[in-house]
Amino acid sequence: MARVFWTDRARDRFDLLPEIVQNLINQHLVFVEQWPEMDPEVMDPPHWRGHRKFLVRRQWLVLYRVKKGASPDQDQVYVAEIVPARSNY
């Protein structure tokens, strides 16, 4: 199972979100811990290439990066950013 880490920026945004959105993000991250590469990779913009993304309530886009370990137990997931879904990230 992968370990999930948060950037300060992502954690700050998370703390400002409504509780229901926080719960939905946390529920999705439970699956990401099991299958870190389950979500699609970001292709644009270039500075987010290599990150993965998932949408929450069609309002928020959560971007994360997977760092593969020597075994699945050593995989790491870094939640990099939470942005409004219609922004240019």
Characterization of the model:
The chain is α+β, with helices and mostly antiparallel strands and 89 residues long. It has helices at 8-16, 19-34, and strands spanning 3-6, 52-56, 60-67, 76-84. It has a single domain (3-84), classed as RelE-like (YaeB-like fold, 2-Layer Sandwich). 28% of the residues lie in helices and 29% in strands. The chain has a four-stranded mixed beta sheet. The longest helix has 16 residues, at 19-34. 16% of the residues are buried. The model has no long low-confidence stretch (mean pLDDT 93).
Short description:
With 89 residues, the chain is of the alpha+beta class.
CATH class: Alpha Beta
Q: From the coordinates shown, what is the CATH architecture?
A: 2-Layer Sandwich
Measured distance between first and last alpha carbons: 28 Å
How many strands in all? Answer: 4
| Percent of residues in beta strands | 25-35%
Q: Please give the radius of gyration in angstroms.
A: 12 Å
Shape: globular
**CATH fold-level assignment:** YaeB-like fold
Protein topology:
Blueprint (H helix, E strand, L loop, with lengths): L2 E4 L1 H9 L2 H16 L17 E5 L3 E8 L8 E9 L5
Parallel strand pairs: 1-4
Antiparallel strand pairs: 2-3, 3-4
Keywords:
single chain; about 90 residues; alpha+beta; YaeB-like fold; 4-stranded mixed sheet; about 30% strand
